[in-house]
Amino acid sequence: MKPLDNNHPHIIYRIAFIVLLALRFLTAHAGYQYTPNCERAMEELLSLRTTSARKVLSLEKAEHPDNHYALYLENYCDVIDLLMLEDTSLYENFKYNYEARREVMDGKDEDSPYYGLIESEMLFYMGVGHLKFGSKIQGARKIYRAFKILKKNVEEHPHFWLNEKWEGSYK
What is the pLDDT of residue 120? Predict the structure, then answer.
């Protein structure tokens, strides 16, 4: 193999540019990864086993602390507990956890189609919590805002298949 000489520095720049571009696309949505732990947690959630789902999500957050999908699934745990147990103390905890999670997630990886979808879904469930345990007006406002965020996400990411999960509800 012939070594590169100083007469061809543009080759090095081209290679560096290609590598950086490839890394950009590989990590474009690194904040929302459906990892094997997230898959296991979702399976637990679908069986309404929130305690075991939380354990799996603790592992996920330790292994991938920047994976916001784990925070979304934790919010889902809170929603299930709140709606199944109908405990007003869980409602206060749910509101606090929602705010803390959104503080971590807001402004991060906003170009990802997951960002708008998850933001709208978490806000929708916060609205449902308000309707059931708090202010009906505040709940209705949050649900309305959630649908506006989802509609915007559909417009910005029309081919993102997970948008279809909620898209029919606002048409």
Answer: 92
**C-alpha to C-alpha distance for 129 and 149, rounded to whole angstroms:** 18
**Each residue's pLDDT tens digit, 47-89:** 999 999 999 999 999 999 989 999 999 999 999 999 999 999 9
Reading phi first (left if > 0) and then psi (alpha if -120 to 50, else beta), residue 151 is in alpha
Helix (H) or strand (E) holding 76: helix 68-85
Q: Which residues contact 83 (CB under 8 A, 6 or more apart)?
A: 128, 132
Residue ranges for the chain with pLDDT beneath 50: 1-5, 8, 10, 12-13, 15-29
pLDDT confidence of residue 75: 95
Residue 20 parent element (H or E): helix 9-26
- Helix H, strand E, coil C: the string for 78-96 is HHHHHHHHCCHHHHHHHHH
State CA 72 to chain mean position distance.
5
